[in-house]
Amino acid sequence: MNSRKKYISVETVLYIVITALAAWLRLANLGFLPLTNSESAYALTAASVTPYASPFWDGDEVTPLSPAYHMLTASLFHLLDASDAGARLIPALAGLALVLAPILLRRRLGRPTAVILSFLLAISPVLVTTSRTAGGASLASLGLVTSIALLMGVEAGEDNRKRIGWAGAALGLSLASGAAAFQGLLAVGLGAIYPFVRRYRSGGKRIGWLQGDQIRQGLWIAMGVMMVVAAGFGFSLSGIAGLAESLADWITGWGASGEIPALTSLAMAPIYEPLVLVFGIVGAFNALRDRDSLGLAAVSWVSGGVLAMLAYPARVGSDLIWVIIPLAALAARSLAGLVERIARRRTWQEFTGLTCLLLVLMAYAYLQLAAYASGIGPAFDVIDSGLRLWMFFGVLFLAGVVVVLFGLGWSWSLAGESAGLVVCLALLALNVAACWRLNFPSLGASAQELWRPQVSTQGMRIMVETLETISQSHTGRVDALGVKIYGDATPSLAWALRSFPITGSAGEQAVDPAPAFVARDGEVVPALSAEYTGQGLKLGERWGWDGALPLDPLAWWVLRQASTRPEHWILYIRLDIASLGEMEWSDIEARP
User: Fold this and answer.
1) Cα angle for residues 37, 38, 39 (degrees, 5° grid)
2) Concatenated DSSP letters for 244-286?
């Protein structure tokens, strides 16, 4: 009888905790924010081959731009239901799997660095938001990053055929995920130019550990998996055309003008990812100083990601993932070094005292900055808010003086480690706040974030709830009321109204005049043969500023206050229907 006891290692426990945290951030209240226009286009295309196809969207003429997302989400809709959460579930699961990708590099990165990298990926606002966005970006990043991690783990002299085969399969999944994969390949390709040229000039005959036959094997597997996934394992041949369509869409983007300016995409890194940015820069300097090959590869990847993002005109927020992932690898190495130095300390009294003092000063400094952004002066001069800014800089100067004094009085290692820990905790708090604002805003979706130039507001759900109530009163079912749209239906509106039949369609007996219709505010509506009552609704928002950032960047960063342009629509209900159930109507615009 085997009496040996089995223990769970600390590393395993940490991965379990990190996975649980990542799952909560990606899956909690997944349908909280209504789908944007871009998300709705993907969801509508997936729903077009299911019983939940929207009659307001001509899905027969639309080729899926992300065959992998289309196949997986359509299967999910068949099994469950077409909902906002269901449209985002596949990207969320892909984002959760991406968090565990560092496990593949434990031997090369070191176990502490791999755990910290997994944690950084779990809480990254960019990766969390990409995972909670319907589309192919999350699947593309999972496939490409997994493929790179598998290839980087290849060792000379070992039998790496299985590893290379799985890397090819992951690359195939990425290629079947749409335009985001081509943007990722561009970033990796640009980042690989310098190492390639440097190795070629040094007389290297091959790049890395791979031989020509191994590369061909991986590419053949990638092509095969790409075709099989795009074809939905033989059940959706339209996905094959989607491969060409996604490539054409990415190429067309080079001649288009994107909604996100280049400077805005650069500003997202310090705003949404301060922890990864600061410690990633430290890790980059360490890699350059030590000439570490793995660190230099990550630096090259970061450079390629930045160049690809700035060069591509039709850039989107998720393009930042190709910068953040390698930057997180650099940050994890520098953070692992900090943790190891702190863990080796023998005396903790001075270290704990200095850390607590610096944390108090940092918190006080942030309060001064927040008060200045709100226009509130200190108690001795409430009118002059500029004094708060001087107090903010004064507190930062005081913190620097304290660090220097501790370094002179005790040791510079103590001062440096304490300051590094405080900076890490402060940036971590900013990271968490940015992630929460992007995905769990208290007032619902808003176009005040740099990540989303356009959003659908809670007014979209108010409209649907109103129609369901009227339909229940008039027909006995919540989804039987005929609806008509005057003007071009946006993808988000077509998605929101997917459960209702078009007036006069085969699913409903022709009714004249229409029981309900929706028209954009200002749209010319033809003469109506019946009386209607209308309700104004704000169904969407767009950025209200023309530059790279809002007019007052500091106030926006602290308070998220920026101008937006609302998209108003009017819901009209025929009076004889609206009066059923003793309902009262108002022309006042509904607020989300």
Assistant:
1) 90
2) HHHHHHHHHGGGS--SS-HHHHHHHHHHH-HHHHHHHHHHHHH
Distance (Å, whole) CA 552 – CA 562: 8
H helix or E strand, kind and range, residue 518: strand 516-520
Which residue's structure tokens are 């992998």? 68
- Please enumerate in sequence order all residues whose Cβ is within 8 A of that of 526, keeping only pairs 6 or more positions apart, or say none: none
Q: Which two structure tokens, joined as six digits, stand for 371?
A: 């008060």
Q: Where are the alpha helices (DSSP H) in 375-490?
A: 386-409, 412-439, 459-475
Query: Measured between alpha carbons, how far is 20 from 425 in angstroms, rounded to an integer?
Result: 21
CA quadruple 541, 547, 552, 553: dihedral positive or negative? positive
Instruction: State the pTM of this model.
Output: 0.90
> Angle of helix 212-230 relative to helix 67-79, nearest 10 degrees?
40
Rounded Cα–Cα distance for residues 353 and 477 (Å): 66
How far is the C-alpha of 290 from the C-alpha of 299, rounded, in Å?
13
Q: Take residue 292 and report the two structure tokens written for it.
A: 């570490």
CA neighbor of 245 nearest in space, from 182, 316, 321, 318 = 182
Distance from C-alpha of 350 to C-alpha of 357, rounded to nearest angstrom? 11
Distance CA 72, CA 178 (A): 13
Q: How many of the other CB atoms lie within 10 Å of CB of 240?
A: 16
Confidence band for 218, pLDDT divided at 50, 70 and 90: confident
Are 133 and 139 in contact by the 8 Å Cβ rule? The answer is: no
| Contact residues for 32 (Cβ-Cβ < 8 A; gap 6+) | 439, 440
Query: Tokens standing for 166?
Result: 């799985």
Q: What is the DSSP letter of 323?
A: H
Task: Judge contact between 22 and 99, C-beta under 8 A.
Answer: yes
55: phi then psi, degrees, rounded to nearest 5? -70, -10
Q: Please give the pLDDT value at position 582.
A: 45
Positive/negative CA dihedral, 168, 172, 174, 179 = positive
Helices of type H across 136-205:
137-152, 161-175, 179-201
pLDDT of residue 446: 79
Cα 479 from Cα 310, distance rounded (Å): 45
State the burial class of residue 170 (Cβ atoms within 10 Å of its Cβ: 0-12, 13-18, 19+): buried
Distance separating alpha carbons of residues 209 and 396, to the nearest angstrom: 48
Report CA dihedral (70, 72, 77, 82) to the nearest 10 degrees. Answer: -60
- The helix or strand, by DSSP H or E, that contains position 351, with its residue range, turns out to be helix 349-374
pLDDT exceeds cutoff 80 at 33: yes
Q: What is the mean pLDDT of the chain?
A: 85
**CA dihedral sign of residues 539, 544, 546, 548:** negative
* Inter-residue contact 280 to 325 (CB < 8 Å): no
Contact between 414 and 351 under an 8 Å Cβ cutoff? The reply is yes
CB–CB of 577/470 below 8 Å? yes
| Interval 448-476 mean pLDDT | 89
Indicate whether 67 pLDDT > 60: yes
Length of the chain: 592
